[in-house]
């Protein structure tokens, strides 16, 4: 699971608001128009996005509605993939995984960030933040490889825990029913640290005056967390939800590597993205693969929309 | 020295043929032939314009780098570029993945590819998305008939689609019965001669020497060792796009119930031979093990694995079922070499695949696996026997090579993956294989259908 670098949009918005309230800021749009250098700065990003994001997406749309010979196929590719015996199990797998993972992410990331933020000893807090972030520094695939060892009772450093849970062999650990939890744990372990740091930053962004006022009014730490900090973190939680959702629906590396490592006991068509991969490269059906990708895109967009509107991500008060 | 003679002769013949085909290709391009792109070339497929001294690109896995090296040493004049890839191993399917991308791009194909899988000819022999089939037809003049006929009987089955040969087999992986001669003698047991005796022995071992095992059933190739050898009709490829599956037959059930019985008494555990768990529990306790020829080097005579000392490991021919006069056996892998039909230097590509599959320089002197090319296999066996590692003669391995049952086919999808995905979790969870046979049938049918097969 890759983490997008934290967007500064929220903080920028906040400071701009503060400035405009004071009446010292210029309207943002005209400032941008007057400095063409801005275009230069965004141009590399824009060009790369067009070349490797937008054009391939458009190509996928074309592929999804055409057949192998390039003729218009209507919704044939979609009915075909939805009717595939592997499609609905894959949907179920990804949904279960997403539910477990997103829930764990929201609860534990916010909880841990609040705890770290409440730690007043500076070096303890700094050490904790560093430790949380550490697993995220491992690239996706290598962290999965690490987990292959952790999950194998004969090689695992936590084999005691695994055998206490009744697992004596790797195959027992990776029984189909356990997989969503396993993938959620792996994804949490690799990705949550970065989010804890971001949430910590967000907590720092809450004005000390507000917290102090609450404290003077007699609020204790728990009350401050629940009544002040949490509501002010709403946008950040929504942001985390949107980003994680996009990454989570694309579940691929974890099951793919686990599939190879277990000699296919973990199926190579476990997730929707893997199924698309199977379509493209096992069945040589790029059109079917594009149809699955498009379905994924639409679903992810719809869910993101829910997060954006419910979380008030783009509200300007 | 017969081998070397044929080699020289066939090379000369191949070169004449290649010159002729190059000339034909030129004519075709000049418009004299008037052939369209779908028309066949002199060797049964449309050829690219040949460039006699161009460099050929060769894809090998890490183990086969030695083959490329041996070729370079023996043929310094032929220019080859060696690219190492994963050999499509462990279901990575990278050979097919890459070729499909090259097909879309319309260029970039390697000239020669080694694959560790047996299901590549099934797709490489077929046109895909209107594009010419990747694999060159080898038995219409490209590879000399003499060479082809010297391959062990049945060994080119994974390469044969609709009667045409599309690849050369590197090594064979016929299943035999490996056993620990010293342990057997110590316990006073005889080597079983039928599967029924094998099962009876398992029941005896469970009572008299619990903890010792006579096989394993936890790997993805379990169906290939037990079901295939029992002539179970789970994978009968009847045409390039048709398949017949029947897992409720007597042949399937007898093997399944034997495995169930032996798993329940602990003598054939559901554990993969390549796990630390296997080594921890069963090192020194493997009484016997039906498995592919390569188990000898990969498991028994391997310091990282069971590390059985010299003079103990014996081998017996594959077992028949009671009442059958000749035993059938299964096969677990064995690499294949493909020549690209897009190659600009078919002559060099053919020379390469012929060298690596037949020349003593590689197959006898270097290759770790049992050569598919029969003359090389005899010499390879002699070399293995000379090592004094084995407690018995190795002729059972040779006789097993041509007994691989041909009713088990080679479709584009992997039977191993299906077994691992649908059966292994169930068996690990304690279900019986006999009860799971219908599930297996359904899974094979489903997989076959999405891969474009008509299932009967």
TrEMBL record, chain B:
Tell me where the signal peptide lies: 1-30
UniProt keyword annotation of Cell wall biogenesis/degradation present: no
Pfam families documented for this protein: SBP_bac_1
Keywords for the protein's UniProt record, in alphabetical order: Signal
Name listed for the protein in its UniProt record: Extracellular solute-binding protein
Species whose genome carries this gene: Streptomyces lannensis
